[in-house]
Amino acid sequence: MVLNGLPGRVEKNYPLKQLTTWKIGGPAEFAYWPNSAEDFVLVIERAKAAKVPVWLIGRGSNLLISDEGLPGITLVTTSLRAIRWGDYSVQVQAGYPLARLAQEAGERGWHGLEFARGIPGSVGGAVIMNAGAHGGEMAPQVESLSVLTTEGCRRTLERRDLEFGYRYCSLNGEAWILEATLTFSPGDRDEILHIMGENLKRRAINQPLEVPNAGSVFRNPTGDSAGRLIEAAGWKGRGIGGAVVSDKHANFIVNIGEAKASEVLALIEEIQKDIQSKYGVDLQTEVKYLGKLRDCP
Questions:
Q1: How many Å separate Cα 29 from the centre of its chain?
Q2: Residue 97 main-chain phi, psi, to 5 deg
Q3: What is the tens place of the pLDDT at every residue in 234-250?
Q4: Domains defined for the chain, CATH in brackets
Q5: Confidence class for position 296, pLDDT limits 50, 70, 90
Q6: Is the pLDDT of residue 217 over 50?
Q7: Angle (deg, nearest 10), helices 98-107 and 189-206
Q8: Distance between CA atoms of 181 and 154, rounded to whole angstroms?
């Protein structure tokens, strides 16, 4: 057994909807919370040798998991939270909450993560998708990354080794992030905290935080807003089963009660077809899918 003798929490047939902000997903054959980067690497090595599939989950935002669940081992990084503060820099493991890191940097008067105060994901997930909001994004803060490649090699990558774009990092699908070194610039503490407070207020007003969701579903097309297009097409309040387009923000699909992954995907497809038909725009999703999704149309 791949997980035998390893420290950390192990659960069999664990309901993955408990680990996602959408509250959607079938069971994990095995869920494992490694206590250290070494445990993480060892599991990957063992699973690779045993040809057991491995899936990675951080804090479960921006994520849709199959109704069938996930075979093999689901690695949950939320226990990987070691952090070392330096001189306007921080070394932080992948499972550390991004919003907490942003607040702590702000309390120090460090500028750079004001945009991230309300983002519910982990540091690793935020870097791998170059998460952003309020005109900011992760890329400018990244100095280096400690990663495990899909071939099983541990590497340290400098900023120059990486490519970033809109919700894009060249590591996606190529490596797992173990630790990130982020850099900051000096700022005015009170101003930084004020900006973060204002960002949180706008988030509460404009986003459906009171119901399960995965953040923005679609990427904004060049020069336009996905939410504006979806609202203009009349999709607010419409849905399939328990998956409904939010009345508060049209680029959010909310789970109003026991929504299934198949319903979310069907709704996404209907929206994409409608927007393409009406406006000639090909909406691309931001959300990441895990599982075979054989139960989805």
A1: 22
A2: -65, 125
A3: 999 999 999 999 999 99
A4: 9-79 (3.30.43.10), 83-205 (3.30.465.10), 208-290 (3.90.78.10)
A5: very low
A6: yes
A7: 150
A8: 16
Q: What is the pTM of this model?
A: 0.90
Of the listed ranges 200-204, 263-267, 290-294, the one predicted with least confidence? 290-294
**Distance from CA of residue 170 to its chain's centroid?**
16
- Average pLDDT over all residues of the chain: 94
What is the DSSP annotation of the chain? -TTTT--SEEEEEEEGGGGSTT----EEEEEEE-SSHHHHHHHHHHHHHHT--EEEESS-TTEEE-TT-EEEEEEEGGG---EEE-SSEEEEETTSBHHHHHHHHHHTTEES-GGGTT--SBHHHHHHTT-EETTEESGGGEEEEEEEETTS-EEEEEGGG--EETTEETTTTTEEEEEEEEE-EE--HHHHHHHHHHHHHHHHHHS-TTS-B-S--BPPPTTS-HHHHHHHTT-TT-EETTEEE-SS-TT-EEESSS--HHHHHHHHHHHHHHHHHHH-----B-SEEES--TT--
- How many whole angstroms separate alpha carbon 30 and alpha carbon 218? 30
Distance in angstroms (rounded) separating the CA atoms of residues 75 and 97: 16
Could you tell me what percent of the chain has a pLDDT over 70?
98
Task: Give the active site residues.
Answer: 167, 216, 286
pLDDT for res 115: 96
Q: Are 132 and 94 in contact (CB under 8 A)?
A: no
Distance CA 93, CA 18 (A): 22
Band (pLDDT 50/70/90 cuts) for residue 173 is: confident
CA angle 142, 289, 81 (to 5 degrees): 40
